[in-house]
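Fold Annotation — chain and its backbone
Encoding — discrete vocabulary of local shapes
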Amino acid sequence: MSSAPLVKICGLREEETLSAALEAGADFIGLVFYPPSPRSVDSGAAKNLAEIVKGYCVSKKVSTVGLFVDPSDQTLEEVLGGVALDMIQLHGSETPERVRVVDEIYNLPVIKALPVTPALDFNLVAAYEAVSDWLLFDAKPVDSNLPGGTGKTFDWGLLEGRRFSKPWMLSGGLNVDNIAEALGVLRPDAVDVSSGVESVRGVKDSAKIKEFINKIKLLS
């Protein structure tokens, strides 16, 4: 029986749901720094949430991930100046060169999100592999202003049998009802969930977070 993938709960905004994620065994906590998103969090609240994660890390290593969409250096500096992030997630149209620069300037592991379509160029994926620490494969958004957290899945078969030189996360419409099927097709190093553990758009649900993580543990 294979080991369970790591779990990232993305788009947390409240202490209650953050605590639920930590207690259930989340490995990554995602904080969204993208104002158009209904899951966006301001730096003050994010600082508090990141400090809670750091306090929890006495018993288990949990990484706080900051999600950005085509961020300027100024945006990154402002957030990183006040929030103790462990990783940076780039979820926009950043080029491989931009990913490399962010990695070098801020000296934090970088996750690069890539939308999956039948036309996905795996030569381009290789270019991102060379400059990022993690890859994240997500569904292609319908609304360009909201590049993630759409609740839409993609054809997992497009990645079936693929091997990558860097660890990778599976994202896009995952929930407790389809995660077993997804992990039956693919063997990601981690899974990333946002809308699939919400009661309404942008509002995390503690019970759904716990159910999702427990389901993955049962599948291992």
Q: What stands out?
A: The CA atoms of residues 176 and 211 lie 7 Å apart. The mean pLDDT is 93. The helical segments are 15-24, 43-56, 73-80, 96-106, 122-129, 179-185, 206-219.
